[in-house]
């Protein structure tokens, strides 16, 4: 073997056999001189290289290998006049190293990169992917020699052989548009398939005396060079197989032939560097979609045990061929698959991976190029089957239900104003949703994607401060959307702190208008009305004519939308106790005697209050202490005729007495009988010189407040138990024992029903003449 004929695999890297490095590693003191002594002759820049290798081994010495990596004869030095006939058949002489003469001055070691240092350690035994046709041996003589050896020799691996490694087999595919006179855009893309085979050279063997033979078969074959088709004989370490595939995989073997004397090549036993396969993917893959189902077909290749199909939505961030994305076996057949997608209207990606069996092991090929399919979507409007509000004991909430559509997702917008109704007419681009004033202003949404046809139920907190919520479902399918009909929810506040004001002949109820209410529903015993806020403001409240014997007023805030009422949770109820009305008359008799008659308006009174007649010499008295009390005596005395300013008759007749010619009138209970004479008094008017008279209800109970003006108006509410005093028979107050019923309304004490004096026609006779006969 002529070492001087070898050339390095890479610039600056000597092509040294591994056994040389083994000897260097075994040195006790690997100095540069000791390393240089191990070099064969002909090594370029031997001293500089020895310096680098000595530096590498300093500080870390690998253990001595058990055996040499490759059993080769020791290198020899041949004389210039030696002939091939002299050496033919002769034994190789012992190796005599001939180091280069020592230079006059020590050489500076060349700078060597880390990669070059690794190459030195590996002896430069690396493969090259560069293919040089000059390395090919195409003469028929080589094919004849190897064909003969294929049938004549045993191919067992020699003892001591350590292969530099199995060949690397790489399937490569390129796709380009077809170019012809009709234009590439109208043509199917053209796919070019090839296989690149690379291998590492035999360590320490020169390229000039080493040949590599690539054998291929379209199925699994035995480890014999004659078991397949010879593709190339080359001195290089790479070859590209451009033959179109005819099966699911191709079996490749690389065999090595090396010699020191040319006759050795004829009888050389080939050495198997290794084997591997190239797995070809399915071809002519076609995808079609209908009704949400993607169907895929391909041309099956013999040798494929099965084909795995993977899918994911476009934009999936992980590996498309991850196990989680693989279709189930029932969906995939030998040359096709059928996949019904979860959500229609999206773009899906598919890739296929073939599986083959080789040497008793299942092998998987590389995934095919990604195929995309836009799945059609029957976008449609979604109807909310339930839209209601409730209180869970902590807060107000909204419950929504709908049926999941066949495609896409559903997003329910909660807004306080209605969206543009034109959005509901047809499907729109998804981006138009953000342009709607209602949708773009809200942060309240509910979104869900569920199985088509299933019932979806979602809840949300009622937005704080809102009294009206528009719940609008939107079906979104990728970049399209269709807005459904809105359902309107109302939240009506309860009516708080109403105030009932007595206006003698009618009543007025006032309150703060409750939030969310369009009108107030008002119900009494004999009346029912609905009052909107405009009418309420115009008349200053709710004006009513309640029953004087007592009444109940129910106030219910109501919101109205599309003919449907939404009422407040709790109506407000006011118990009106009624109003006892009294009137009187002053009549001047023939003997100049003034007679006072008092009666109860509407009905007789069996529990009449005390009265007092007041005189003021200058003006009309305004309240009970605004003048002097006038003494009177009973017109129809019972017992001694007492004169007093306290006018009290326990039973007062009604006005019917004065229209019934003095006949008795009976209380509704049938227990009280009174006449006009029973409620008449002689007025002591002897000392009057003009002035004014006026009758007031008098409270004789010292524990009750004094009364004021006769026509003063009391007021009360469900939240207050105190009332202003006026011309009444007592203070109106809530019962301290049972003041509030279960519905929140106030109840009133029976004896506290207020009373008022109505002067009516007598008002023109309240002024007394200053001289002459009175009235």
Key traits:
six-stranded antiparallel sheet; Immunoglobulin-like; mainly beta; 9 helices; 775 residues; rod-shaped
How would you state the average pLDDT, rounded? 77
Anisotropy-based shape: rod-shaped
Q: Which structural class do you get from the secondary structure elements?
A: mainly beta
Main β sheet profile: 6 strands, antiparallel
Outline the low-pLDDT stretches: 1-13, 59-99, 180-184, 660-671, 701-740, 744-751
Give the termini distance in whole angstroms.
165 Å
Q: What is the domain total for the residues? A: 6
Number of helices: 9
Helix content: under 10%
Which percent band covers the strand fraction?
Answer: 25-35%
Radius of gyration, taken over Cα atoms and rounded to an integer in Å: 59 Å
Reconstruct the topology from this structure:
Layout: H1 18-25, H2 32-38, H3 46-57, H4 84-87, H5 114-121, H6 140-152, E1 168-176, E2 190-198, E3 210-217, E4 229-234, E5 238-241, E6 249-258, H7 263-266, E7 271-279, E8 283-290, E9 293-299, E10 306-313, E11 332-333, E12 336-340, E13 347-358, E14 361-364, E15 371-374, E16 384-391, E17 396-403, E18 409-415, E19 428-429, H8 437-441, E20 445-448, E21 455-461, E22 468-477, E23 480-483, E24 487-490, E25 499-502, E26 507-510, E27 519-523, E28 528-532, H9 533-539, E29 542-544, E30 551-561, E31 564-567, E32 572-576, E33 580-588, E34 594-600, E35 610-616, E36 628-629, E37 632-634, E38 643-644, E39 647-648, E40 665-666, E41 673-674, E42 680-683, E43 691-698, E44 715-717, E45 755-757, E46 767-768
Parallel strand pairs: 33-45
Antiparallel strand pairs: 1-2, 2-5, 3-4, 3-6, 6-7, 8-9, 9-12, 10-13, 11-12, 13-14, 13-15, 16-17, 17-21, 18-20, 18-22, 19-23, 22-23, 22-24, 25-26, 25-44, 26-29, 27-28, 27-30, 30-31, 30-32, 33-34, 34-42, 35-36, 35-39, 35-43, 37-38, 37-42, 40-41, 43-46
Helix pairs in contact: 2-3
Organism: Corynebacterium terpenotabidum Y-11
Pfam family, one: Fn3_SaeA_3rd
Protein name: Putative cell surface glycoprotein
